């Protein structure tokens, strides 16, 4: 099942996506949730009933919808780094025996289509295409063998990273949490519609139409199952938590010469059979000016 949270003339709602058409689920068959949380918490049979009811009405073109964030209120946003060997090498790191981890704040997150903001204090905003896990069933000390049963679905994430601030300390938090630098969506695909662990999918980023990263999710050192088992050793996972699984090689800071995002750029991140997340790059000053004018 392909699900999308988006805005139209009636407000924000959850949609079922089929090809280029979208069916509004919010308001159907007693379903009033306006984000993905309602689908995660509802039994599959109930969601199927809602979809059947929604398809009695005329669909809307997907292109007519404005993507929104998948959750009105985020739970944990956990991120792995250094999960592809060639990316580890291009960054000058040793091959890790335990994944690098950091968290993102909700203010850093934006939906597909929204401007990604290059901060005025840095010229080193970088792109990172990543597979993102949406947790459907919570738990602690989840075994690797049982981990995939805890996945609701998958989406695409662009982990916009301000490299000089990332390297200011051993903790990556500053460089990974500038406002409006983490793009997600627009579609969440339920786990049953993808290979187990979303393995074997092509993962690509493009800058102004030029391919910058091209790899496969099978190349991850920590698979989805291993990631969930590892994370749940130290924290209780809850429905709606998000886990980004790291980026493959080809990022801008590792190129010669380096390639960083500038206002006017368009960056796309795509994972096969999931979706493509497209965002324009704007300067912090321009974004603040537009907000003040509004």
TrEMBL record:
The Fumarylacetoacetase-like C-terminal domain, residue ranges: 76-282
GO biological process, one term: carboxylic acid metabolic process
One protein family per Pfam: FAA_hydrolase
InterPro entries the UniProt entry points to: Fumarylacetoacetase-like_C, Fumarylacetoacetase_C_sf
Entry keywords, A to Z: Hydrolase, Metal-binding
GO MF entry, a single one: metal ion binding
Sequence similarity: Belongs to the FAH family.
Domain of life (superkingdom): Bacteria
Protein name, UniProt field: Fumarylacetoacetate hydrolase family protein
Organism for this UniProt entry: Hoeflea prorocentri
């Amino acid at each position: 099942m392909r699900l999308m949270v988006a805005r139209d003339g009636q407000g924000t709602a959850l949609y079922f996506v089929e090809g280029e058409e979208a069916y509004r689920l919010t308001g159907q068959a007693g379903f009033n949730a306006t984000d993905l949380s309602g689908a995660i918490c509802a039994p599959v049979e109930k969601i199927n009933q809602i979809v059947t009811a929604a398809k009695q009405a005329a669909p809307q073109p997907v292109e007519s919808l404005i993507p929104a964030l998948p959750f009105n209120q985020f739970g944990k946003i956990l991120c792995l780094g250094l999960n592809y060997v060639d990316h580890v090498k291009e960054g000058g790191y040793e091959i890790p025996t335990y994944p690098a981890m950091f968290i993102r704040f909700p203010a850093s997150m934006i939906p597909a289509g929204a401007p990604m903001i290059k901060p005025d204090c840095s010229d080193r905003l970088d792109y990172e295409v990543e597979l993102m896990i949406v947790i459907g069933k919570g738990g602690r000390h989840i075994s690797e063998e049982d981990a995939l049963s805890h996945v609701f679905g998958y989406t695409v994430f662009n982990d916009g990273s301000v490299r000089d601030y990332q390297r200011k300390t051993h903790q990556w938090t500053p460089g990974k949490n500038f406002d409006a630098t983490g793009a997600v969506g627009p579609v969440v695909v339920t786990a049953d519609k993808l290979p187990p662990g979303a393995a074997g999918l092509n993962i690509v980023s493009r800058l102004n139409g030029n391919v910058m990263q091209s790899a496969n999710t099978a190349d991850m050192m920590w698979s989805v199952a291993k990631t969930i088992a590892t994370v749940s050793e130290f924290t209780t996972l809850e429905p709606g938590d998000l886990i980004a699984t790291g980026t493959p090689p080809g990022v801008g800071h590792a190129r010669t010469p380096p390639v960083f995002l500038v206002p006017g750029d368009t960056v796309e991140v795509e994972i096969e059979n999931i979706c493509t997340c497209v965002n324009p790059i704007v300067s912090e000053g321009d974004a603040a000016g537009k907000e003040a004018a509004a």
